[in-house]
Fold this sequence. Notes:
The structure holds two protein chains of two kinds.
Chain A: E1 8-14, E2 24-30, H1 40-50, E3 70-73, E4 76-79, E5 88-92, E6 99-101, E7 104-105
Parallel strand pairs in A: 1-5
Antiparallel strand pairs in A: 1-2, 3-4, 3-5, 6-7
Chain B: E1 8-18, H1 22-33, E2 38-41, E3 59-60, H2 72-82, H3 89-108, E4 115-116, E5 119-120, E6 122-123, E7 133-134, H4 141-156, E8 159-161, E9 164-172, E10 175-183, E11 189-199, H5 220-228, E12 232-233, E13 238-245, H6 255-263, E14 266-268, H7 276-279, H8 289-301, E15 311-314, H9 320-329, H10 336-340, E16 350-359, E17 362-364, E18 376-378, E19 383-384, H11 396-415, H12 426-441, E20 446-447, H13 448-462, H14 469-485, E21 490-491, H15 501-525, H16 543-546, E22 549-555, E23 558-564
Parallel strand pairs in B: 1-2, 1-11, 2-8, 11-18, 17-19, 20-21
Antiparallel strand pairs in B: 3-7, 4-5, 6-7, 9-10, 10-11, 12-17, 12-22, 13-16, 14-15, 15-16, 22-23
Amino acid sequence: MNDKPDQAKIKIYRFDPTVDQEPRYEHYDVPPEGWFGLKIIDTIRYIYEHFAPGLSFREPCRQQLCGGCGIMINKKLVLACDALSEKEMTIEPVPKHRVLKDLIVDLSREANDGEDI
Amino acid sequence: MGTGNKSWDEIEAQILVIGSEAAGAKAAIEAQEDGADVLIVTKGLVGKSGNTVMAGWGIQAPLGHMDPRDNTDVFFEDVVKGGAYLNNQKLVEALVRLSVAEVPKMEKWGARFQKNGDKFVQYQLPGSSYPRTLHPIGRHGGLHWRKAFKAQFRRLNTKIMEDVFITRLLLTNGQVSGAFGISLRDGRFLVFRSKITILATGGCTQIFRRTDGSIDATGDGIILAYNAGAELMDMEFHQFFPLCSYTPPFEMSNLPGSLRYELHAKFYNALGEEFMGRYLPLSKDWGLRDPTSRAIYLENKYGRGSPHGGAYIAVNHLPHNLLDQWVKKHPAGHLSKLEKAGIDIRKDAIEVGPGSHYTIGGVRINENCESGLPRLYAAGEVATGMDGAERIDGGPAITWCLSMGYIVGKRAAKQIRELDWLGIDPEQVKEEQEKIDLLMKQKTGVRGFEIKNKVKDIMWEYCALVRDGEGLRKALSLLQEMRNNDQPRVCVPDPSRIFNRGLIEAIEAANMLEISEMTVRAAIMREETRKSHYRTDFSKRDDKKWLRNIAIKKQDGRMSFTTISPVITRLRPPEKEETEA
Lengths: 117, 581
């Protein structure tokens, strides 16, 4: 574990319904400062700030409270503000919802749902 | 919703509520119950944006269930003394009176509280004379508020448009006739036409580097009102919460607060000293939020802080069986975040420190929550007058949202029956569209997040917990430099109109920059120390000169500052008062 961490290979689902026929994946080589020991939400923000200014994502509370940043990492459902970044990640939107853009899905059918506390 | 050949969609609602969380939700629900046609628009998702869902520990009302001596008069006095007499006392009177019915109503709406038979369990927190704070059961209070409001939205079939960013209030003959916004979901421009508009957009906690608030809190509503010509007030006052977890950073939400409020946790510096008494000889570990935050800040300045610029809190002085009982009282998993971080409360301390938590200043309103602009109300954190120079602990923020939401909802529902519709001025709409189109055309330059980061650093360094004239003037010159050099070069690199974060952040950054300048200018003016505003070069409270509010208005495109007398009904500052800043 003493090895200096390498670049992470990160693949992100991209889809803009106004220009894209089909969703696509973009690849980003992220240096350690953008992923090592960071939460996934911070890595997504790093990619947005450094490589992908058009990347759309949600990051409302960053304290695992609101649930707004739910996301798929390597086919597992997590909160981006909770889970730690990995060296190889595929980041995709929450399944079974209409994708509005990139990592943002339509949650409006849940807007008036009750939730467990 | 027909549009003809216009480049925007027009949407009508008798009452337009901007902001979907506690204050906006409450206003909408109360107005709908009286038969009004209401539309809520929100920048994010309902229940997943703003600070209500993050407001964790409690909510207060003087029910007197634990101590019959508590009542609305005592609550009023606590709030006004806590605010060092700069509160609008007529407004506070109205809000505390309503709290007695509106807070327990949350239980009927689906929130669940700790109870003792049919009585609420009430806790006494710093700033309250008697036990007054109701504490929700379960993992986190904010989830109760969200559940309660959503249940009412379902019951009333409330119309809500999510992901709509309002960028301008529209005026007709000097009255607010609606608002202009962008639908983030499809990039359309939207024009809302309303008889009454209610701002419930929250505060601007994001202007400081360290904050435990939502990323959404960029002061948009404050600037909407200001640009439309409404008066702002108390912008020099911002509240810092002393119990943000610094390791892991800003993640424990209300857990350190739980330890303080429920178990009287002790503060320690890096030397193991219980240092609070050094700064707060009267209240010690039980001080209000800003003085407590400031004490932590100063310990760091003297080199006695924790590794990340904070201090420690711990409850390890308490007997283990008492702690075990406390843990048992809470649902399973209550401490899971601490456990995940390797912290055992029987043995370990938590590293905590201050973070920007609540915006005290905002839109100046009267006791009916009316802004100075006809047909514009403001409720919740976006408004000011309820807190004076400091908000007391124990959850009045959500209480204020409920009382203010009730006031504006009921009043608006009544007024719309008498008010005519106003026409929309297409020139204002076109002007705003062009502004946004122009922003979208700038593909290179400075990005919104870069401006935000600079603002946050400047404000944290010079205008947070400890201020002085020299530092404030430095901050002002840095902010003005940004206004001249960075602001005109703001760019939006990506061309998409859908969820364009670059566009959103460019607008938010401009709002933050403007609010920061107001804050700094007002802080320079206020040559005294009063609660959350602490000046080392004017270290005493000066009631002779500064029992005044600072009001800010846009005049000929510039910030114009005046001082006004606070609204005082029955509580004046005594000649001599024992106080800790």
